[in-house]
Structures
1.
Amino acid sequence: MGEPAKTILMSAEELRAMIREELARAAPSTPDEWMGPEEVAKMLNVKRGTIPALVSREALPCYRPGKSYTFRRPEVEAWILKRSTKPGAKPRGKLRMLRGE
């Protein structure tokens, strides 16, 4: 027989940090993780024209080699997780769509 299960208590933020660390460790950076604005817009269920506003106003992480935006999938997913799970946060404008409000 095995040992009985143990109960571990941690805050939601500690759990999110642990999940982020495990995801980063499990998914090393590869070229297919890069996305264009169209893919990010589809992922967020917003129009393509909303992406620059999310970058400037909402700190959506991006890289800008030249005139176009480029995004790393893990960074966008982490941004969504942070924005969608922040306790007491009231989404503005298009961000309501992220939470289904």
2.
Amino acid sequence: MTMLESRCTQSLKCLEFTHNTNLPPQYFSNFLGHFKNLTKLNVCASMVDDCSFIIIGENCSKLVELNAASTWLTNNGLKGMSVDDVIIPGLPTIYRLPNLVLIDVSDTRVTPEGLSLFLVCHPNLVKLEHRENFHSFRLAKIQNSCNSTYALRYLSSIDVYLSPDDYEYALDHCPRLEGVTLTCAGLTNENLYKLMTVKSLTQLHLGNKNSQSFNFFEGVAPVLAEVGVTLKKLVLEDFTEVDVDFIGEKCPMLEHLALSGILTYAPMGNNYKPHFFTKLTSLELWNKIGQNHELAVSDNVLIQLLFRAPLTYLLLQRVGSLTDDLFSMILGMNPLLTLRNVVIDYCHNVSGKIFWMLLEHPNNLSVMRSWHNKGTTETDKNAIKSVIKEENLLLYWEWYPYNEYEELLDAGQIRLESDEEEYE
């Protein structure tokens, strides 16, 4: 590090110093300020604190991209990268890091208040990565910046209540928006209709994690009917009902589909549509413990999703309708030759046979995981492991046995003994 500091201070433009928990925070404050020509800095998950980020703001004026995720950054450090502490009346305010376009402050102690100041000082930001960056416009809204527009491409609100006014203001002032994540409380079906005006939308994540604010048919479906043609990624979680056929019809370019905690799917017949999901490369189906898993994902739903999809990634969790025979039938329709990564989790109606079928097909498998499936035994695990070794396959095979205690623990239906003692 001393050699780097002594020889590269003028020439170094890109520095990645990630996941370092050995050096103390004060080391970074002395070290990072020497590299004044940096354009890209990545200190993700390292012990970098506010003092170091203030030093970065004072010295690294050419910085274009900064990854500060999972560091000790707070609003104070974000302010130090935005503006000088001393503002002289009559003179224009000098903003720090004027060339910054991308910044990741996820999993830090930064709050919406800090994001608001940072965005006002850096209106050219394309990426402000934070789970609550939908709230980054509070200060701009107070300043009545009605005519200002921002270059942000992705907006998200996960847990913090989002008022309809703040939501609409953000959409109105981000004309280049490409991705939206909304799982917070505060919005209704009618509020979702504002998404119809976002014509460049390619990623959409909607969920009722905190409350049943909106539903599929009255809120999500009208939005998909308008903007679904441009969507490449769709994530829906915690809805009482979802219509897979409707998604397939309205989202022809969909590449990534994830459905989590869906209680029921709209009734489907045996008339499978071969023109649905023909671009789908990633499919995730997550069900929760206690659901009627056969009702949630029926045979027909699973067949329609996999009928023509050129999948590279497949994750199925608690899909009770999945059996060896059903999967064999699906492989007869679609051999999944492009499949690279598959995870079967808590699917108790399958056996080790399903993994042997995957091994026997001429696909591109590099990762195969069997997690907590009752029908997949340790004998299956060892046999597959032996074949991988004997055939010298470039395949990562992972197997975990079923454990009822762990399943109940994951579902929050029981507590660890240490938690119970603390509670008492």
3.
Amino acid sequence: MSPVVKFLIGLVVALAAGWVSHGPLGRGAAYLDGLEARAGSMVRYAAIPGVAVHMKRDPLSRTAILSGPANDFQRQGIGSMIGLNGRIGSIPGVAGVQWTDEAQRFAMPLLAETLLLVAFAYLVGVGLGWVFFRPRRESFL
């Protein structure tokens, strides 16, 4: 079997494992549930009545979607006073913040992020294996 075929088979298996973990095993949705809980506690701490937060679910994305009656000061803040956008955007794992009354921006799906990360880790592993564990040619010095 050629080395290219072996490389591609390994890449496909790694990507399939990433997809299984994300989708059928539910790790993607569980990750967003945790982010949504942290974002919800941040909104409750801000104590702005009527404001709610949820994570983008179709497709799964690390974008927090805020809704409710909040003025620009409550959303953006001013000077050293951080608004809801900054507070929720500072939560580790949240990639972006959008309001329902704003134009929707592109948000990379969590599955795409997962597969890119898996492919990168696979390529790093193959590269390290090639550098450190490949058979060496004998030199006649």
4.
Amino acid sequence: MGKEVGYARVSSKEQNEDRQMIALKEAGINLKNVYLDKQSGKDFERPEYKRMIKALKAGDTIFVKSIDRLGRNYEDIIKQWKIITGEKKAFIVVLDMPILDTRQEKNLIGTLISDIVLSLLSFVSNQERLNIGQRQAEGIAAAKERGVRFGAPTLTPPPMFFEAAGKWKNHCLTIREAALLCGMAKSTFYDKAKNLLDETS
């Protein structure tokens, strides 16, 4: 019988991995044998995950609480799944999805079931990404229709701006003096004053 290890992941150092650790412990995993990454699941460039895969031997079993703890990109998950079960000849157990337990059926049917489930998850994940993008685009379009403006907010010039701009235009103040009077950077004062003068010319 091979070694049983656990893998846990949270997206940042501030997040808490306790729920995953409790689930792994209840599954009989010694917490000394749990590899933990505090990093995004967007790819598999994670130090503890790579260390676990390197140490993995044929007959070993990896336990994870849920499939998204393994990763977020299902195409990459399928690739890693094949490395673990195919190249490494090890097993995977996803605790909250019992159908993804490769120990159950060590035959063609078991492999087929896992492949179908993973492919379905990949499809659903990709569709959700597309739907999110579409919803964002529709939301932006609807907001623009309502008159919502995107980008940096337009700053209201200080009360003395118009007087300073007029004095600068009439050469009573240098641009440096006018900008200083308004508490603005020279470039900002120049751009706003020039736009104002263009509008009133």
